[in-house]
Design goal:
elongated; alpha+beta; Nuclear Transport Factor 2, Chain: A
Length: about 180
């Protein structure tokens, strides 16, 4: 004996609703596993993540932070905090930004005047962290004067790409950091 038509529609509707609820539950659980708000994996040193330590005292073996921490508008203390040799993971967690770059340049804004032109929108969209530099993109190494101001990051080099300053991995050209619209 087969169920009547109204019963089949009710069962089908119930099945669709249950699938929708299951999808919502899985989606909500996946959102909680994001790496934002210091939910990433704990760092090997001390069991705490780098993002939590940035600006809050010292991590094991790190140098003292500048007053107020990096990227918080505090004085750079002559730039000594940023002018040391960096491990790539520590550098990316420290929060280097356009504001910090302008503090490091200080009284020499001519260092950022490179005659740069913005990238076309389609190419600029392809320039992203974690991806290799797009093929055929116009890139140049930074000059010696600007390079002396920028932080040194192990196995990485700074490149000029349009009006952006890009930190790339030396061997693979994978983009580690992009500081947008700082070059003129």
């Amino acid at each position: 004996m087969t169920p009547s038509r109204p019963t089949r529609y009710r069962l089908l509707t119930l099945l669709v609703l249950l699938c929708g609820l299951a999808t919502l539950a899985v989606d909500a659980a996946a959102k909680d596993k994001g790496k934002g708000n210091d939910q990433g994996p704990p760092a090997a040193a001390g069991g705490r993540s780098h993002a939590h330590d940035a600006g809050h005292g010292q991590t094991a073996g790190a140098e003292p932070r500048a007053a107020g921490g990096p990227g918080r508008g505090a004085a750079v203390d002559g730039g000594d905090y940023w002018r040391r040799d960096w491990d790539a993971a520590d550098f990316l967690a420290a929060g280097f930004s356009a504001a910090v770059l302008h503090e490091l340049v200080g009284e020499r804004p001519a260092l950022l005047e490179q005659g740069a032109r913005p990238l076309p929108p389609g190419i600029a969209k392809n320039l992203a962290r974690g991806k290799p530099l797009p093929p055929g993109i116009a890139q140049q190494r930074v000059g010696a004067d600007l390079g002396a101001v920028l932080p040194r990051v192990a196995e990485h080099e700074w490149r000029r790409v349009g009006t952006d300053l890009v930190l790339v991995q030396a061997g693979t050209a994978i983009v580690a950091e992009i500081i947008r619209n700082v070059l003129r």
